[in-house]
Amino acid sequence: MKYFFKSIKRLTAIVLLLLVGPGLVILTGQVDLNTSWSKANHDRTGIAPDPNLASEAIVQIYGARTFNWRGAFAVHTWIAFKEKNAREYTRLEVIGWRHYRGMPVTSVSSGWPDRNWFGSKPEIYYDVRGKQAAEIIPKIIEAAKTYRFPDQYEAWPGPNSNTFTAHVIRQIPSLNVDLPPTAIGKDYLDEEDYFFAAAPSNTGLQLSLYGIAGITLAKSEGLEINILGLNFGVDPDNVALRLPGIGKVGFIESSAASQSQN
Q1: Nearest to residue 73, comparing CAs of 182, 231, 226?
Q2: Which structural domain range is residue 183 located in?
Q3: In terms of Cα–Cα distance, which of 122, 112, 49 is closest to 84?
Q4: Torsion angle, CA of 129/139/161/89, rounded to 10 degrees?
Q5: How far is it, in rounded angstroms, from Cα 235 to Cα 225?
Q6: What sections of 125-227 are H helices per DSSP?
Q7: Residue 9's CB: how many other CB atoms inside 10 A?
Q8: Rg (CA), the chain
Q9: What is the secondary structure of 217-258 as a DSSP string?
Q10: Does pTM top 0.70 for this prediction?
Q11: In the beta sheet, which residues pair with residue 147?
Q12: Cβ-defined contacts of 191-198 (< 8 Å, 24+)
């Protein structure tokens, strides 16, 4: 019994330590706790190429902090693409409110992919253009159709928007996308996966129990440990730390893999 209580105390101490990151995000004002969702900014940020000027095929993967206090912990991710000569983008994602209205959570929409997500500015995790993008787009469409949770949504630990993005990436081995540690839900694996799969980046392996606890070992993610959905680890590839709430910090190159082929 004494050992049990010691273990509980240690686990509690670890969890409290992991909450330091989200706490700092709130204290430094990186999330807006005052604006209501109905008044949140959805303006485009100008980081997506204008489809009227860029004729080449484009694939981009975005993420932005989630609304209100949840943004201290997690980002929302989505996939966007534009086929060659297309005049608009297609955006694929999972949206939680659709579930609460009795709709499938998977969403397919068109328009600018770089709009603020309820006031949070997006960043690009992956950007590929030209011939390679044109080859990837049909695979993305097919991978999205195989998502197993179109009628399920749980902000924590998943399945959620990040579960969907990670699923699509895993189905296309040529996609090397390093989703940040704040993409809670990317690690959601269940018994149908045998709690084991490729890392979301397709550069290693992952063992995860419903996204609540697990470990990832991969070239892109490095070593990442998941405790209650809070991820931390080291990323030798970019000489960085992976911290809950904060994301990747250190001597980091651009978080977006960017390529262009004609």
Answers
A1: 182
A2: 2-261
A3: 49
A4: 40
A5: 12
A6: 131-145, 161-170
A7: 10
A8: 18
A9: EETTTEEEEEETTEEEEEETTTTEEEETTTEEEES---SSEE
A10: yes
A11: none
A12: 192/148, 197/170, 198/170, 198/173
Q: How many residues does the chain have?
A: 262
List the pLDDT tens digit at each of the 262 positions of the chain. 666 667 777 778 888 888 999 999 999 999 988 888 888 999 999 999 999 999 999 999 999 999 999 999 999 999 999 999 999 999 999 999 999 899 999 999 999 999 999 999 999 999 999 999 999 999 999 999 999 999 999 999 999 999 999 999 999 999 999 999 999 999 999 999 999 999 999 999 999 999 999 999 999 999 999 999 999 999 998 889 999 999 998 764 544 555 555 5
Give the helix ranges, DSSP H, for 19-129: 20-27, 96-100
Q: How far apart are CA 150 and CA 99, in angstroms?
A: 9
Cβ contacts of 245-248, under 8 Å, gap ≥ 24: 245/19, 245/20, 245/21, 245/22, 245/23, 245/24, 245/25, 245/72, 245/73, 245/182, 246/21, 246/24, 246/25, 246/182, 247/180, 247/181, 247/182, 248/180, 248/181
d(CA 211, CA 235): 20
Q: What three-state secondary structure class fits 26?
A: helix
Q: 60 pairs with which residues across the strands?
A: 80, 127
Closest by CA to 117, choosing from 98, 95, 134, is 95
**b/e 28-62 (16+ beta carbons within 10 angstroms → b):** eeebbeeeeeeeeeeeeeebbbebeeeebbbbbbb
Residues facing 113 on adjacent strands: none
Query: Considering its fold, how many domains does the chain have in total?
Result: 1
Cross-strand partners of 80: 60, 91
> What letter would DSSP give residue 35?
S
What residues are paired with 223 via a beta bridge?
217, 234
